[in-house]
Structures are given as C-alpha cells and as structure tokens.
Fold:
Amino acid sequence: MFAFLVIEGLALILLQLLPEPEAKPGRFDAQVVWEHERNSFHEEDAELLWKPVPGFERGYVRINSAGLRGPDVGPKEPGRTRILLVGDSVTFGIRTPWENTLGFFLEQMLNSRPDAQEVEVLNAGVIGYTSHQGRILLEQRLREFQPDWVIVTFGYNDHHNAQLSDREKTQRGTQNLVSGWMRKTKSYSALQRIRPRTEDPIEREPVPRVSVDDFRENIRAIAELSLEAGARPCFLTTPIRPDVPMVENLRAIEFSDQTVWMRELDFALGSLPEPAQRNLTEHFLGRAPLDLPQDAENCGRILELSETHSNLSIFHYLLAHCLQVAGQTDRAAEALQLSLQNDTERRSMDRYNETLRQLTSRGEIELIDTAAWFDENPDPADFADVVHLTGDGYFRLARRVSEEWSALAQTATRTKP
Structure:
C-alpha cells in the first residue's frame, strides 16, 4: 500500500510537469457526455458492466434501495399486479423528473381504470443498457422482483458501435473492474500522457454493441426467463422521431468505449472551416445551439461537401440549416429530406425494431409496436431529441401502452415458447 501511494505521488508530480496533450482538431468524443451521465450515479460491475448505485438521490434522479429508479418498493402484496419495466434510457427517463416518466404515468393510468385490480410499476431501466445487459439483469434478479408482467424496451443502444461487443466485455469479467479502477489512478493518467500512440482509434473497425443476431437471441432468452419465473413478457419497439436525422442525436449517445468516434461526424468536423468546427463540436456536446457561421466560405464548403459526399447524412443536414437561416425554406426542406434518406444510423436502428416485429409474426413474443404508432401519429413535441421523450411524449407512450396492455391482459396467458 505504501509503495502504491509513493508511485501515485510521483505520478502526480509528473502530471504537473508534463504539458497537456494537444487536442486533435475535428475530434468529437461523445464519451464526454456519457461519462458524466454514467459516472454520476452508476458503479462498475463485472457482469453488467455498470449498474445504478442504490440509495443515490440528486437532482432529477432517485435510485431506491433495490437499485431501481423511483421510490422504495416493499414486498409484493397479494392481489396486486406487478409490472417490471426493463430497458435503457428511454425506460429510465434520462434527464426527466420521475413524475414525467413512463413508469409513473403507466401506473397512474392503469390504476385509474374503473374496477381494475391494483397495479404497481417498477422501473428497472438503466441508462446505456443493451439487451445483453438486460438479459443478465433478469438472470440475476428477476425472481427477486416477483413481477406478473415484464415489459421490455431495447434496441437503441444495441445498434451503436464499440471497440468490443457487450458480450466480449462481459467475458472479461473482473478485468472490467480492475481496468476501471486503474483508469482512475494518477499513474495511469501519467502513463497515458507519456506513452507514444501507435494506433489511431478511428482506424479500428468497430462492431455493434449487440449484433442483430445476438439481439434476437437475447429477446428470446428474456421471454423464456420471464415465463419460467411466472411472469408474462411483452416487448416495445423504440420510437424514433421521424422528421430529424439521427445524426442530431449524437449529443445523447451513450458509449462505453472512450476510444470510439462517430466516423461521420469526425469526418465532417475535419472538413469544415475552424469556426464551424467549434460550433458543431459545442452543439453535439449539448453545450450550444446549432449556429453555423453563415459566411460564403462556410456555407459554400458545406454545399460542396453535400455534393461530393452525397451519401453522408450530416452534410445534407448542415446544408439544410444554412439554407433555413438564409430563408430558402424550399431548398432547406429538400436538403433535410436527403439527410433523412441517407440516414444510415436510422436504417441500422430500424433493423432492431424490425427483428421484434419478425419474432411477433412468428408467434414467439407479444409486442406493442410503439414505434409504428409514433410514426403514424407524429408530434415533434413528444421528443427531447431523436429518441428520448419529453413529458408529453412519455404521457402519450404510457397511454398507448396502457391501452394495449389492458387488451393483452384479457387474453389467454402465453406459455413457454
């Protein structure tokens, strides 16, 4: 222990003597946003990778003694229906007061039905979780919660790229805890600053956190786990705002790898004049509105890039902004439409929602297709960004889920697939 303290002290002195590393121009690290959200009320876990800290309470977040969002929950009472919500930040309600979340609204709506059996809703959503983590969570704790229903929402984080898949990270087990602890030491920081960089992270080929095939198997496993525990599983597709490309959602992306770059945005930043780079970086870190310089150099460069790289959504999106500010609304609408048509992020995300629909068509799971419903009933006021909802959006989502759940509850209970 004494030796470690000596090394840490020497490392601290070294850090003070060494110059700060130069920031690479044009680099956007969405991990800055994610680390703030994750580290504020989550802790490292060897199998789950991270989990909420029981008893945490600050700002809009309250984690109860069971590690779930919301007020403390007592033992399950006879005659009461218990619904367990499992999912990601959409289920959790990121940056949303408890009284505006899906769990709160759903419990209120189901208990307001005339002559209805009392219902309680537990919120086990965790920011950044994939179906892989949700499956492990249920393997560990499903019987502890004793739900009658399990309502599951995954897909958004599953499709994001990382240096290692979630399954590979979990296989490393306690290495995750050790590496997490090491990254917090002064010795590690000093070593990172002095060691030569032999590989540029952007050159590594990323993989989905959870592939579509693994997503399918995770969903099947979650359904089976629920039925074996005496609970009835039901799945939700993830709503996506239809009128804005997903590149606008980079400010809310949750990465678990600090070395992961969004290639399209990184390329865009490096291709634009420096004033535009600064505003775009601040915007996608959630620190400033999009306010690109409207000079001829900047807008001309964006137009040139949208023509040269017509398959990249981001340049059409930025061109739409320039045209809208210039009052050319028709051309702005055309550019925005091209941005949506070339939205590879959206197409990737759609594959996960479509996988849920395919499993439903085969009779393997029960589904409430909330994504299709939001597409058919669009309202920009429902969305805080491209995927996360506002209080109004959660209210409409809860109303839709309560209506369809009430109908499902009247049908025969499903058996193990």
User: Anything to note?
Assistant: Residues 359 and 371 are 16 Å apart (CA to CA). The chain has a mean pLDDT of 82. The longest strand covers residues 81-87. The chain has two domains: 30-245+346-409, 262-342.
